[in-house]
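The instructor's notes for this session suggest beginning with a concrete chain rather than abstract definitions. Hand out the sequence below and ask the class to guess, before any prediction is shown, which regions might be ordered.
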Amino acid sequence: MEIEEKQPRSIAEIISIVEALVFVADEPITVKTLSDVLEEDRETIEAAVEELKQEYEDRTGGLQLREIAGGWQISTRTEYHEEVRKYLKTRPNAKLSLAALETLAVIAYKQPVTVPEILEIRGVQSASAIKTLLDKKLITAKGRKETVGRPMMYGTSKDFLLQFGLKDLSELPSIEDFEDLVQ
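After discussion, reveal the predicted structure:
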């Protein structure tokens, strides 16, 4: 019985397969997953992803390859979001109330944070906003605080990063940027 040896793939073929996998993935696909599926080392996959990203940038088409929430995803270019939104007949994130957005902002910047800490910052009860954010999977429980009553701590979820198109929390605007807008 003869064992057939696997022929090494060209970098062009790896790039093409990476593009196909990123395209069909229903959420951002990690380099590790790509590496496992293609049975290629991490460095080869990282080089292929970077080359593919550059190809999208050089082409200046309507799509881009973006690193979002720890993985890679093909998305429309931000400069075309208005036209895409108009076509899809949707409104920009009108689905969260002001209370829910304020609560989400507190959680995003102060995480992990408890309900009493959110109350202290916002000055109003946030229970219904927290329920809404949990239902929409924008926040998640992060354990209990080691203090009297052991209140639940909350933080943002992977869905939060996806919804807002962030690679990680370091891409959140600084609080100083917000203060500049208010003045």
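Then share the key points. The two ends are 78 Å apart (CA to CA). DSSP finds nine helices and five strands in the chain.
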